[in-house]
Predict the 3D structure of the following.
Amino acid sequence: MNTKIAASLLSADMLHLGDELERVKRAGIDWLHYDVMDGGFVPNITFGMPILKEIAKKTDLFLDVHLMIMNPRPYIHEFAISGANLITFHLESPISQNPFLTIKMIKEHHCQVGAALKPGTPAKCLLPFLDDLDVILVMTVEPGFSGQSYIHDMTPKIKEIRNMIQGRNIKIEVDGGIDNFTAIEAINAGADILVSGSYLFNQADMRKAVESIKKHTEK
Ligand code: DX5
Ligand code: ZN
C-alpha cells in the first residue's frame, strides 16, 4: 500500500505562498490540495483560477483541485488550463444535476476526475458513476473550513466505499481533520490519499510528520 499525502493550501501562509510550496516539496508531500469555495455551496470563499495558475508555474507537484461550488461546469476549462491535474466536484452541487456531463467535461480536458461526498451523503449515491471516476473524495468534516475535527462516523463509510469499488482503479481520498491519529484510522479503513491542512502546516518539522504518517502505510 502506498498512501499519498495531499497538503491543503487553505492552511498555508498566504503571504509566503512560494516558501510554503518549497516547504511542502521538501517535506515529501505528494499532492497539493486546492480548495475552491464560492460562498454559496459552502459558507466560505477562498481562491480561484489565477492563483492556481501562479502555483502551477512554481511547482511540479500534482495539483488536486477540490471544487466546493454550486455550479462547477463553467469553471472546468479555466481550472484545467490553469494547471489542475485532478478536478473533483461535489455530487451535491445543485447545478451539477447531471454529473455524467461534468465527468465527461473534466475528462475532455485531460484531467483526472473525482467525485466528492459531504458527510451526510450516502455512499450509494456513487454507484452510477463508479466506472467513470479516478478518485472518490470522502469528506470527514463539513466542507467549508480547515481546522475542524475528524468525524469518526465517516470511517465505516470509507470501508463501505472500499468494498463498493471492488477491482476498479479508483483512489479513495479522505479530507478533513487528518492528523497523525486519524490518518491511521482512515488508512486502515481503506484510504489511498489523505488530505491534511492545519495539522501539517502547524508542524515545526513537516517532513517528520509526513514520515510518521507514511510509516504506517509501508507495512
Ligand atoms: C474543508 C476542505 C479541506 C480542509 C482540510 O472544506 O475541503 O481540504 O482544508 O483542512 P484540515 O486538515 O485542517 O481539516
Ligand atoms: Zn478539500
Observations:
- Residues 8, 33, 35, 66, 175, 195 surround zinc ion (ligand 2) (CB under 6 Å).
- The first strand starts at residue 4 and ends at 8.
- Residues 131 and 168 are 8 Å apart (CA to CA).
